[in-house]
Write a structure and sequence with these properties.
3-stranded antiparallel β-sheet; mainly alpha; binds glycine; two-stranded antiparallel sheet; globular
Length: 435
């Protein structure tokens, strides 16, 4: 017998469909139909050329050196080592090219010994972007085993007194005096996805507990009253007390480093997706709203490397010569991360989601333009141009970055998925209009 759907559930479904329809119309109206196909064809061609230069999977590509040549990381322990494999997996997912898949496997499997690595928190990036995609796309159990052991290694950096995973080992702050014994950075939110995965596939809730505790502590100590974020929070490991709220890669301790804010938006969106806990959704929205309504966000929605660079009221503690930066460098990596996050956030945000989808589409349009996307034979065969790794360290300024490509490709796939899921609704509404 046919069951009648409860009224509340029916209403929820109707409202979800309405949002999907609006998202589809927003997206359908704004993006040229072939934009994603062209971007993936471009990615395949660029990476095919890149693979002729980057043959050793133990030293994957990261960026461009100051002399203009390709920079390969010296070993797999660099925090970016998993992104190139991830770039190849996403390109394979979109194009189904067998050679790209073979290379994706090669660049992934070279990272096997990372599963034992406990030297910093970036294991989530390194393993989930490589092995995570490998497992998602192949379902090969040997990849799952690496991810579980990797999650165990990451979890070993958790301290229940601070309620956080330790990001970096001991460091000195830019003031030259303050020592961070237990620094936690906003970027760490990204590494939690590996822990959620481990709980899902093992049934052991320990990983999930750590991830949720870390996200709640970060929510309390990394986010300012105006919904911007600190980059670094240093904790007292005896009491759990916050000792310092500073920056390492941003302009000033009270400024908003664009990529830090991007990691926060993405990290809280992902944590909501994994937990269904509304506190994380609200946090993701607050961080996104700060970013999107910020008067310092340029028209093309590709942010300056720091929202407050060159502004009065913000004092860099690193050696900074403003006359060198009358044009403030952008960070296309932050734009790619935010575009990908917003496409997910749009699905969970009711009517507000339409604004997030629109903003994400605008970001993708900018990134796909000649200004940010490389031509064949240029940019050391990376896709995106105009990223900033760490300006305070004088490193990777206005260059391609392997992780910018990763989140750009991910955003394009998410966009395609959204469009694909919504297409019957688009067709329905179009035929209704035509009648
Ligand atoms: N630590 C990651 C980043 O530079 O964004």
């Amino acid at each position: 017998m046919e069951q009648r759907m409860p009224f509340k559930l029916m209403k929820q479904r109707q409202s979800f469909r309405f949002v999907l329809l609006c998202l589809a119309l927003t997206i359908g109206m704004q993006l040229k139909a072939q934009m994603t196909d062209l971007a993936f064809a471009n990615a395949k061609a660029l990476y095919s050329s890149m693979l002729e230069k980057a043959k050793n999977p133990f030293t994957p590509p990261r960026t461009t050196k100051p002399d203009g040549s390709l920079f390969l990381v010296p070993d797999i322990y660099d925090w970016t080592s998993g992104f190139f494999a991830g770039d190849l997996w996403y390109t394979y997912e979109a194009t189904k090219d067998a050679t790209i898949k073979k290379e994706a496997i090669k660049f992934t499997e070279a990272l096997d010994s990372l599963k034992w690595f406990t030297g910093h928190h970036d294991l989530g990036f390194m393993l989930y972007c490589s092995y995570g995609n490998a497992y998602r796309l192949t379902k090969d159990e040997k990849y799952k085993a690496v991810l579980i052991q990797g999650a165990k290694s990451l979890a070993s950096r958790f301290n229940p007194i601070t309620g956080t995973i330790k990001s970096w080992n001991k460091r000195t702050s830019w003031d030259g005096k303050t020592v961070w014994n237990y620094p936690v950075i906003i970027d760490n939110m990204m590494n939690l996805e590996l822990l959620f995965f481990a709980s899902k596939v093992t049934g052991d809730t320990m990983y999930r507990h750590i991830a949720i505790t870390h996200a709640l502590t970060t929510m309390k100590n990394h986010i300012r009253a105006n919904n911007s974020t600190y980059h670094v929070v240093n904790y007292d490991t005896q009491t759990g007390k916050v000792l310092n709220q500073e920056t390492c890669q941003g302009y000033a301790n009270n400024s908003t480093w664009a990529r830090g804010q991007a990691w926060g938006i993405y990290g809280y969106t992902m944590t909501y997706k994994e937990t269904g806990d509304k506190r994380f959704l609200e946090t993701a929205q607050r961080l996104a709203d700060f970013y999107l309504t910020n008067p310092r966000l340029p028209k093309d929605k590709v942010p300056y490397w720091d929202f407050n660079a060159n502004q009065s009221g913000y004092t860099p503690l690193f050696k900074y010569d403003a006359s060198k930066y009358t044009t403030i460098p952008r960070d296309a990596a932050a734009a790619a991360i935010v575009a990908s996050a917003l496409l997910d956030l749009s699905k969970f945000s009711g009517k507000k989601g339409i604004g997030y989808a629109k903003a994400a589409v605008a970001m993708l349009q900018s990134l796909a333009s000649d200004k940010y996307s490389a031509e064949q034979g240029s940019n050391n065969h990376f896709i995106l141009k105009h990223c900033t790794g760490s300006l305070p360290h004088g490193s990777e300024i206005d260059v391609p970055l392997v992780y910018a490509d990763y989140y750009y490709l991910e955003a394009l796939l998410r966009y395609q998925q959204l469009k694909h899921n919504s297409s019957p609704l688009i067709n329905k509404s179009t035929s209704a209009i035509n009648k």
